Amino acid sequence: MSHNTFGHLLRLTTWGESHGDAIGCVVDGCPPGIEITEAEIQTFLDKRRPGQSRYTTQRQEPDRVKILSGVFEDEAGKQITTGTPISMVIENVDQRSKDYSVNKDKFRPGHADFTYTQKYGIRDYRGGGRSSARETAMRVAAGAIARKIVPGLNVRAALVQLGPHEINRDNWDWDQVEQNPFFSPDRECVQSWAAYLDGIRKKGSSCGAVIEVVATGVPAGLGAPIYGKLDQDIAGALMSINAVKGVEIGAGMAAAALSGEENADEIRMGDDGKPEFLSNNAGGILGGISSGQPVVARFAVKPTSSILTPRKTIDAHGNETEISTKGRHDPCVGIRAVPIGEAMVALVIADHYLRHRAQTGKG
Ligand SMILES: Cc1cc2nc3c(=O)[nH]c(=O)nc-3n(C[C@H](O)[C@H](O)[C@H](O)COP(=O)(O)O)c2cc1C
To answer: Ligand 1 mean position to 103 CA, how many Å?
Structure first.
């Protein structure tokens, strides 16, 4: 049984463990002729990379991506995809397996240690092995390619809630997202978030976060009834990210509290002669098919489970014990999940774009 592949026409397979020699992926089904360089992919990986501020883990993983296949120089000297499988690799260079060896028989609460042992009878205790979010680096690399498959597609994400503290949506400014260590679109919350997270970090504790992903330039018509809905696939893709415990599309959970008048997005003809929706509670998707409005998804990330405070647990022999984590961990993994969310949404949209083109002949 293999579950390391994602997508239909655009297929991503990832491999590797957090403390192995390297992690890697194969992106299959990418059309030929798409310009892409390692440097371009690297810019997205650098957003996810740890050790960039005091709010992320101090592990120093340079996450240097290398393209091994599927990209070739064209006559003009540009690096373009050839239509063959694109293979990429990142070496693991800052593993400290020692950090994990003292607790190797203990099941870390909130981690997959217990369930992996139940399922496989063996687990790589060094950093969680395959269950580690190290794997998500390859999703980000693949997402950089996916973004270029759909002409005009722009997928961006921002942190809209840190622990219990939400942004003021009236202050939303995309230009701010790259200007602060939280990927917050609201400049005004940055100082208070910094103080809050410093407190959390000093206590050796952790907090969760909510991330919003917005994709613009999504053509109408992507997604398919009945089991290939765009929102269904986006939800699944976001839920597959480590530590994600909730996903919503458009108005999401809050739609339940709206009236029919408030919720259904009314339609008018715009000045440009094109249909115009007067609101976007649907998050750009109706009947599982994109409407041409921005696709909006949010996901909630749980607090980092590895914390300094001792926690009750058991070991592999059934003994009750305690565990606290001395390794280097993010006080809020939601921050580094921002580029991962973008990548997963880009991958789903690109896959559906290719599927739509294959079925209808429309590009
Ligand atoms: C970017 C990223 C980095 C993560 N780093 C850590 C970490 O340093 N420590 C930790 O306890 N959990 C971390 N996690 C979460 C765990 O990988 C995850 O909670 C664990 O594998 C159990 O899976 P589940 O939470 O999806 O059930 C990280 C998650 C993401 C998205």
So the answer is: 17
Degrees to nearest 5, angle at CA 232 with 227 and 237: 120
For ligand 1, the distance from its centroid to the CA atom of residue 168, given in whole angstroms, is 27
Task: Give the single-character DSSP code of 294.
Answer: P
Alpha-carbon distance of 356 to 317, in angstroms, equals: 52
Q: What is the DSSP letter of 302?
A: P
Please identify, by atom number, the ligand 1 atom nearest to the C-alpha of residue 329. 8
| 336 Cβ inside 6 Å of ligand 1 | yes
Note the pLDDT tens digit of each residue in 127-165.
788 999 999 999 999 999 999 999 999 999 999 999 999
Which residue in 57, 82, 12, 56 sits closest to 348, CA to CA?
12
Contact 159, 335 (CB under 8 A): yes
Do 252 and 320 touch, CB atoms closer than 8 A?
Answer: no
362 in helix, strand or coil?
A: coil
Q: Please answer whether residues 45 and 65 qualify as being in contact, where contact means their C-beta atoms are separated by less than 8 angstroms.
A: yes
The span from the CA of 353 to the CA of 350, in Å, is 5
| 29-55 per-position pLDDT tens digit | 999 999 999 999 999 999 988 767 777
